[in-house]
Amino acid sequence: MWPPPLPPLPALTRAEGEVVDRYLEVLDLLGRINPARAHDTYGALRAAQTLAIAAAALRDALAVMHERGEREVCASTLARAMRILDGERRARRVMLPPPTAN
């Protein structure tokens, strides 16, 4: 049995889609680096090294939006796209885990 289909992504410009993708990539890397959730230093180190490249790609995607005259961000539309792309789960990895009872 197949899982239910995801809702369709909202209509985004190519630049907006790139910003969403690059932002979620940065979020994933920050989640891997998070010392409260990391499993080993090597994985966190590799994620930190890749973070600089991903942040530059995010910067470039935002620059393209700005150069094309897309001066405003439709936050609600971009948030909807990020939710469809599992952004809430990905963002939780950046947060501290709940305290454990000792």
Structure explained in plain terms:
With 102 residues, the protein is mainly alpha-helical. The protein has one domain (14-92). It is 62% helix and 0% strand. It is built from four helices and no strands. It has helices at 14-33, 41-67, 75-84, 87-92. α1 (14-33) runs antiparallel to α2. The model has no long low-confidence stretch (mean pLDDT 92).
Strand share of the residues? under 5%
Write down how many β-strands occur, each being a DSSP E stretch of 2 or more residues: 0
What about the largest sheet?
A: none
Number of helices: 4
Uncertain parts: none
Number of structurally distinct domains: 1
Helix content: 55-70%
Mean pLDDT: 92
Radius of gyration: 16 Å
Overall outline: globular
Task: Name the features.
102 residues; mainly alpha; 4 helices; 62% helix
How would the blueprint of this fold be written?
Layout: H1 14-33, H2 41-67, H3 75-84, H4 87-92
Short description:
With 102 residues, this protein is an all-alpha fold.
